[in-house]
Amino acid sequence: MFRGLQVSQLSVCVDNNPIINNISLQCAPGSIHALMGPNGSGKSTLAYTLMGHPSYSVTQGAIYFQTKDLALLQPYERARNGIFLSFQQPYVLSGVTWLTFLYESYKSIVNSIITYSSFLEVVHNYCALLHIKTEVLHRVVNQGFSGGERKRFELLQVLLLKPQLVIFDEIDSGLDVDTLKLLPLVLDHLTKACPDRIILVITHYPRILELIAPEYIHVLKAGALIYSGAPTIVSLLEQGGYDAL
Ligand SMILES: Nc1ncnc2c1ncn2[C@@H]1O[C@H](COP(=O)(O)OP(=O)(O)OP(=O)(O)O)[C@@H](O)[C@H]1O
Ligand SMILES: [Mg+2]
């Protein structure tokens, strides 16, 4: 059986409104994909559905990851099975500091017996890589953080939790030019550490495609997949927009 991500004839509703209509796509282990499409086309809906957000109902089709039927797994089980969603708009977790959140996530997903001091060493190393000041780890998750700062912490979570399937929902939005340069560094780190890792990047901007060099592009329009194939399509998109497809 196929060991990557397999989305078959998937349809998704939110509050009984059909958003995704009969899409199929496949991501092989070790591949990098970009998902593009106009605003409101269903990209984040697909990301939430892969993660198992309870508001998104699968009305048709199936999703398999590493041969497991995701319909049988709760969001936390999907996380433990190596799926990670970097949010388009990361949430505030009132009353929970970054350190507590990251330590509990790390113990739950990566290493249940790591000591706090060893964890601190790991997290401090990744903070250095991402130019995050370690004092910030004592602040409440995303509370008062700027858009770009929140995205930087999404990158920190990816590095820490070492997911097998990484979904970046518009990681580039809100990032300044210097932070944007961290992206290839993080991707390089991820792919070298685990050659089987699948990376799915949702974006509007061709410039990010230059940084991540996806092997495949998928384009969603009004909930339907209208293109799945080589990245050569991007120049056409830049010139003619999505109507050119
Ligand atoms: N509760 C809801 N009821 C009805 N429609 C909804 C609901 N939630 C989301 N939608 C609609 O689903 C559609 C897809 O939204 P989604 O966030 O997946 O788009 P997107 O492709 O990620 O867009 P963007 O590029 O702007 O992030 C949108 O038209 C949105 O308004
Ligand atoms: Mg979106």
UniProtKB/TrEMBL annotation:
The keyword Cytoplasm does not apply. Coiled coil: none annotated. The keyword Transport does not apply. InterPro entries: AAA+_ATPase (IPR003593), ABC_transporter-like_ATP-bd (IPR003439), ABC_transporter-like_CS (IPR017871), FeS-cluster_ATPase_SufC (IPR010230), P-loop_NTPase (IPR027417). It comes from the Bacteria. Keywords: ATP-binding, Nucleotide-binding. GO terms for molecular function: ATP binding; ATP hydrolysis activity. Residues 5-245 form the ABC transporter domain. It holds the Pfam family ABC_tran. Belongs to the ABC transporter superfamily. Ycf16 family. This is ABC transporter domain-containing protein. It comes from candidate division TM6 bacterium JCVI TM6SC1. The lineage of its organism: Bacteria, Candidatus Babelota, Vermiphilus.
